Amino acid sequence: MSDIDIKRISYLAKLKLPSEKEEFYSNSLKDIIKWVDNLKKVDTKKIEPLHNVTEKTVSIRNDEVIKSNSVDDVLSNAPERAQNFFKVPKVVE
Amino acid sequence: MSNNWEMVIGLEVHAQLKTSSKLFSSSPNQFGSEPNENVNFIDSGMPGMLPVMNFGCIEMAIKTGYALNFKINKHSVFERKNYFYPDLPQGYQISQFEFPILSEGYINIESGDNQKKIRIERAHLEQDAGKSIHDIDPKYSFIDLNRVGTPLLEIVSYPDLSSADEVINYMSSLRQLLMYIDVCDGNMQEGSLRADVNLSVRKKGQELGTRCEIKNLNSFKFIKQAIEYEFQRQINIIDGGGEIEQNTMLFDTSTGETRAMRSKEFSHDYRYFPDPDLLPVNLTQEQIDKIKPLVGELPQDKLNKYIDNYSLDKDIAKIIIAEKQNANLFEKMISESTVKPKFIAAWLVGDIFAFIKENNLEVNSLNEKTKDITDLLRLISDDVISNKVGKEILPKVLNSEGKPSELVKELGLEQVSDSGELEKIIDEVLVGEEENILKFQGGSDRVLGYFVGKCLKATKGKGNPKLINKILLERLKK
Amino acid sequence: MKNSISQIKKALIEKKISVSELYDEYLVKAKSGNNNSFNLVIDRENNISSIKDSQNRYDNGNPLPLDGIPLGIKDLFCTKGIRTTASSKILSNFIPNYESFVTQQLLNDGSIFIGKNNCDEFAMGSSNETSYFGPVINPWKNKNSQKDNLVPGGSSGGSAAAVAEGSCVASIGTDTGGSIRQPASLCGIVGLKPTFGSCSRWGIVAFASSLDQAGPLTNCVEDAAYILNSVNKHDFNDSTSSNHQREDYLIDMNNSLEKKVKIGIPSDYLEDVSDDILNQIDNTKKALSKHGIEFVDVEFKTTEYALSTYYILAPAEASSNLARYDGVRYGVREDGESLDDIYLNSRTKGFGDEVTRRILIGAYVLSAGYYDAYYRQAQKVRRLIKNDFQRILNEVDFILTPTTPNEAFKIGDKLDPISMYKNDIYTVPTSLAGLPGISIPSGLSKNGLPLGVQFIGNYFEEKTLLQLAALAEKELSFNEQ
Question: Which of residues 422-451 of C touch A (CB under 8 A)?
Answer without folding.
Answer: 433-434
